[in-house]
């Protein structure tokens, strides 16, 4: 899979101080790692809107795009999908070492939009991706999904495990 690279050459926009610009461009998102699972953005090229403005000392950016991810539910592994609106901001001042005012996505007058969009997407997603909020997950004993099963009917006899049988024997001998 090819790495997503979408960079904006800020110098070539040749914005004057106080000037702003809006760019609309599809940005290809690399697969998103979340809770040890990989989730794909659908479609993987999101329609990104970038607002940038030039100040006397640098740039301010705002990035927005709708995001839909699809992948396995973290509890039951069934297909799950989620939609969020990503809205992220960055500032990049020139000639400062202050980390608050420098952007990790700007260097040498280039904005790494692909990497920023990827990180912003991860920040916008919840830490858990579930098929539904109250997903019951998988049975810890047999691995069957408990979403469709009636919990009253889905029970395992403890005695079917020989270790449990041994334990109850010990109790009887007491
Ligand atoms: Zn689920
Ligand atoms: Zn079970």
How does the SSE layout of this entry go?
Layout: E1 7-9, H1 10-13, E2 20-28, E3 32-34, E4 37-41, E5 45-55, E6 58-72, E7 79-93, E8 106-107, E9 110-112, H2 113-124, H3 162-173
Antiparallel strand pairs: 1-9, 2-5, 3-4, 4-6, 5-6, 6-7, 8-9
Describe the model.
The protein is an alpha+beta fold and 174 residues long. The chain has helices at residues 10-13, 113-124, 162-173; strands spanning 7-9, 20-28, 32-34, 37-41, 45-55, 58-72, 79-93, 106-107, 110-112. The strands form two sheets. Strands 2, 3, 4, 5, 6 and 7 form a six-stranded antiparallel sheet that branches. The longest helix has 12 residues, at 113-124. The radius of gyration is 25 Å and the shape is elongated. The chain starts with 6 loop residues before the first strand and ends with a helix. The relative contact order is 0.17. Bound molecules: zinc ion (2 copies). Residues 73, 75-76, 78, 130-131, 135 line the site of one zinc ion.
């Amino acid at each position: 899979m090819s790495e997503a690279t979408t960079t904006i050459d800020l110098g070539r926009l040749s914005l004057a101080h106080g000037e702003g610009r809006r760019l609309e461009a599809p940005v290809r998102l690399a697969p998103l790692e979340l809770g040890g699972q990989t989730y794909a953005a659908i479609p993987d090229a999101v329609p990104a809107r970038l607002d940038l403005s030039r100040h006397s000392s640098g740039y301010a950016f705002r990035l927005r795009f709708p995001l839909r991810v699809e992948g396995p539910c973290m509890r039951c592994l069934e297909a799950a999908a989620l939609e969020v609106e990503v809205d992220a901001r960055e500032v990049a001042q020139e000639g400062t070492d202050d980390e608050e005012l420098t952007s990790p996505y700007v260097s040498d007058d280039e904005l790494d939009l692909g990497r920023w969009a990827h990180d912003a997407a991860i920040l916008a997603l919840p830490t858990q991706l579930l098929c539904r909020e109250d997903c019951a997950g998988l049975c810890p004993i047999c691995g069957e999904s408990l979403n469709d099963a009636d919990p009253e009917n889905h029970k395992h006899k403890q005695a079917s495990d020989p270790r449990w049988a041994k334990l109850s024997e010990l109790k009887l001998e007491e």
